[in-house]
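Hi, here's the filled form for the chain we discussed.

Project: internal
Contact: R.S.
Residues: 271
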Amino acid sequence: MEHIARFFFGVSGDVIALFLFLSPVITFWRIIKRKSTEDFSGVPYNMTLLNCLLSAWYGLPFVSPNNILVTTINGAGSVIEAIYVVIFLIFAERRAKVRMLGLLSVVTAIFATVVLVSLLALHGKARTVFCGLAATVFSICMYASPLSIMRLVIKTKSVEYMPFLLSLSVFLCGTSWFIYGLLGLDPFIYIPNGCGSFLGLMQLILYAIYRKNKGPAAGAGKGEDADEADEVEDAKKAAAAVEMGEAKIKVDDDTAVVDEPAVVDKVAAQV
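And the returned structure, exactly as it came back:
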C-alpha cells in the first residue's frame, strides 16, 4: 500500500511539474515572434537546467534506488530548459548572449564535476549523499527565488504580479514530492520540496489577503513619500527578473512584462 501511495504522489508530482516546465512557452513564443529577449532574464533557465540535471542524475538507480520518477520528469525538464536556453541565446543581444554563455559554462562545469566525482571517487551511500546534497542545495535556492515577488506583493498590497494558478501549482507540486520523499524516507527529496510546499502555501495566503487588489499597484502613489515610491519601483524591477520554474506573467503590451521564477520550472527541478 505504501508503494502504491508513493507511486501515486510521484506521478502527480510529475504531471504538475511538467505543467510548470511548459508554462514559459508563451513567453518564448513572444521572444521568437519579436526576435528579441527584451527585458527577460536568462538566468533562471540556466539555474533550472542545472537543477533538472542534478535531480535527474540523483534519481538514477545506481545513485539513488527506487527514484526513477525523479529521473523521468527532470530528464524531460532538462530537455525543455535546454531548448529555452538555446532560444534565448539565439535572440539575445550580444552582451546578454555573452553572459548567458558564461553562465551556461558554469552550469556545465558544476554538473560535470558532480558526475565525475560521483562516478570515479564515490560509491554506495557516499555517492547518494554527495549527489543528493548537490541537488538539494540548488533546489532550495530555486524554491526561494519567488521571495522577491512575495515582498513586492506585500509592499504594493497587490497580487498583480503573482497569478493564483501558478502559486497553486507550486504548492501542489512541492506537496506531492514532499509526501513522495517522506514515504520513501528520502531527506534529499522531502527537505527541499517541504520548503517549496511551505513557500507555495505562503503565496496562497498572500493571495487570499490581497486577492481583491489585482489592478496596478498603487501602494506608492497615495500618501507615501518619494523614497517609498522609489523603493516600490525598485522592487518591481527586481521582480521582473524573477521567473518561476520557469513561468511568466504576460500583461498588456503597454505594461511591463514581469517574469516569475522558474520555479516553477524549477519546482519540479528540485524533485
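Let me know if anything looks off before we file it.
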